[in-house]
Design goal:
single chain; about 450 residues; alpha/beta; Rossmann fold; Helicase, Ruva Protein, domain 3; Zinc Finger, Delta Prime, domain 3; 4 domains; two-stranded parallel ribbon
Length: about 450
Amino acid sequence: MADMFEQHFEAEKLRGAPLATRMRPTSLNNFVGQEHIIGKGRLLRKAIESDRIPSMILWGPPGCGKTTLAYIISTITGAHFSPVSAVSATVADLRKVIQEAKERLLARHQRTILFIDEIHRFNKAQQDAVLPVVEDGTIILIGATTENPSFEVTSPLLSRARVFEMKSLSAEEIRIIVMRGLKDRLMGLGEMNGVIGDDVLDHLIAMSGSDARVALNTLEMAVLGTAPDESGRRIVGMATIEDAFQHRAIHYARAGEQHYDLISALHKSLRGSDPDASLYWLAMMLEAGEDPLYIARRMVRFASEDVGMADPQALVVAMAAQQAVHFIGMPEGNLALAEAAVYLATAPKSNSLYEAYSKIQEQIKQGSSDVVPKNLRNAITPLMKEAGYGEGYKYAHDYPEHFVEQQNLPDAMKGKRFYRPGEQGFEKQVVERLRRWWGEKF
């Protein structure tokens, strides 16, 4: 009787749920995407179909099907599904689920899948609470996360669970999901006679950001917000789609992997002299709420590491952008960073300073602690003068072009070359000057 009441309650709840929840598939055959892990013959599919599923972490972007796949696994295997959200669940909640799982296993021989949504939000104590029952098989853990598990999940828990990386849905996969939602008469919008043109559908797909949940729920809002015409059709227009979206939220975790991925993309786009890509990745971070001074600091580093002496003005521009952001704040400071990004991307490149300093660092790490040559030392006291301090030093300003060749490195380093200037931008002039002074050494 209790089971019948529970089923009736779940059915009623589903009828009032958003379209994305109502359209959730219940079998692998209806699941769209992730062929690399659940396609026919794949390891995870075999494990599901043979009812030998391991504890696992499903790692992927929002709306790619993590929760849906967990539901499907529980349906196929006949396991009891106990979902918790890491946002609100406590250790006490977990202990209750674990106790119920033990009782269920003894009374019905039914296993329990503990599904933890956003498992990356669990602290160490919460993750440790499920560790023993994952190990002894009392529960099967399925964790869902948008963040790299190696950053957010403890090593002991990771070692007891398989990590399956799920990919963003393609435009064609989103299209399939949207059209199912539009046409399905039982759980979808089929009874509402919604119609959407190809150009409007393409816009919906593009704005969804590969998130099936966003695409379906936006579609539902757009169809509901469109009045039927004389024939009863609801023809969804571009303006309605845009109104339904309003502002697309950007998924971004400043402490997670995406933080490092995006700053890496910006750095590599700058290095690749691509101003468009540089501006794009910059805007992605700023619009998602990244600390603008963090970006400015990375640009300052880039100016020295990747532009360097090819354009010494790059460091000045990067520092000016940092000062501008500090002075006027955001959002006004975004254009100062944009200007710096374009300047750095279009500047000539040289990593000669980085290479030179790295070589010297390596020498020092290997134990180089040579004394300063006597000709470079100051004879501050009579005793120092008697010891030869400063003897033989040539004062550069006494010579033509204010240059004179002399030994400035320690004896053990004599003749070594660390700085090898490139041939780009300002560094061309540097090379010419050094060759004029030092000859073929440069």
